[in-house]
């Protein structure tokens, strides 16, 4: 998989050299390219932002550097890969980034990320990317809070996606039994020692009774999901119009 990231803080993406992703790059499974948006400016001050039309707080990222940066990225197409990247734009106004979306992105041969800063990117850049470059654009949010820019989100998204790319994780089985793969959170886990600071490992885990262990773990997953993420158990009552009279 090829990954291009455009940012005004390319150093922010240096963790992509580390750990599992660094290893996957060394192994040739990921081909990561980070680009500095300011390299696509033409003025002495390398300006990437300007004031918003219509007024309002903060600054807006100018369309011109973004258009040239995205054109440059799109021109990197290397015949064996498919012709166009899928463009992911992290932002608090995006669709929720979920494990399902991570799986979808992991199946793409080429992803490009546009890291916005300030109040965001001039809306016409999205139209340009779709209409003139012919790329699919997805605005994606990590959750209902605001970050200063897309860089940290790209680190999270790339990590979630890369580990689903075949070969990146040695033990593919470890991918199946995970929170968010089947709609329940993971059960609690323990390792040695059996007694630690006056606390014991739950007896059932020492029993050797595999059916009892499976049953206990399932109950723990349900209880934990109900306590921490009730929305996962009752998805129909979240994010939709709920009839308040009938909702329980
Ligand atoms: Cl993906 N980007 C930014 N800038 N803020 C966020 C976010 C993304 N997700 C939640 N807040």
UniProtKB/TrEMBL annotation:
Function recorded in the entry: Specifically methylates guanosine-37 in various tRNAs.
Subcellular localization: Cytoplasm
Family that this chain belongs to: Belongs to the RNA methyltransferase TrmD family.
Residues binding S-adenosyl-L-methionine, per UniProt: 116, 142-147
Protein name per UniProt: tRNA (guanine-N(1)-)-methyltransferase
GO molecular function list: acyltransferase activity, transferring groups other than amino-acyl groups; tRNA (guanine(37)-N1)-methyltransferase activity
Subunit structure: Homodimer.
Keyword tRNA processing annotated: yes
Catalyzed reactions per annotation: guanosine(37) in tRNA + S-adenosyl-L-methionine = N(1)-methylguanosine(37) in tRNA + S-adenosyl-L-homocysteine + H(+)
One of the GO biological process terms: tRNA N1-guanine methylation
One cellular-component annotation, GO: cytosol
Keywords per UniProt: Cytoplasm, Methyltransferase, S-adenosyl-L-methionine, Transferase, tRNA processing
EC nos: 2.1.1.228
């Amino acid at each position: 998989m090829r990954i291009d990231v455009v940012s005004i803080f390319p150093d922010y993406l240096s963790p992509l050299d580390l750990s599992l992703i660094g290893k996957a790059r060394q192994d040739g499974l990921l081909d990561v390219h980070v680009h500095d948006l300011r390299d696509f400016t033409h003025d002495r001050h390398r300006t990437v932002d300007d004031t918003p039309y219509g007024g309002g707080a903060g600054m807006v990222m100018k369309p011109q550097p973004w258009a040239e940066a995205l054109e440059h990225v799109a021109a990197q197409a290397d015949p064996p890969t498919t012709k166009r990247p899928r463009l992911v734009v992290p932002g608090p106004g995006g669709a929720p980034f979920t494990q399902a979306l991570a799986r979808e992105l992991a199946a793409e041969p080429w992803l490009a990320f546009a890291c916005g800063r300030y109040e965001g990117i001039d809306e016409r850049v999205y139209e340009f990317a779709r209409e003139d470059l012919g790329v699919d654009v997805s605005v994606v949010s990590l959750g209902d809070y605001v970050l200063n820019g897309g860089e940290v989100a790209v680190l999270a998204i790339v990590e979630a996606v890369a580990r689903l790319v075949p070969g990146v994780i040695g033990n593919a089985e470890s991918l199946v039994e995970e929170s968010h793969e089947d709609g329940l959170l993971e059960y609690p886990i323990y390792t040695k020692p059996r007694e630690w600071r006056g606390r014991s490992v739950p007896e059932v885990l020492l029993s050797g009774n595999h059916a009892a262990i499976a049953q206990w773990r399932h109950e723990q997953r349900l209880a934990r999901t109900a306590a921490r993420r009730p929305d996962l158990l009752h998805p129909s009552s979240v994010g939709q119009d709920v009839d308040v009279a009938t909702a329980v």
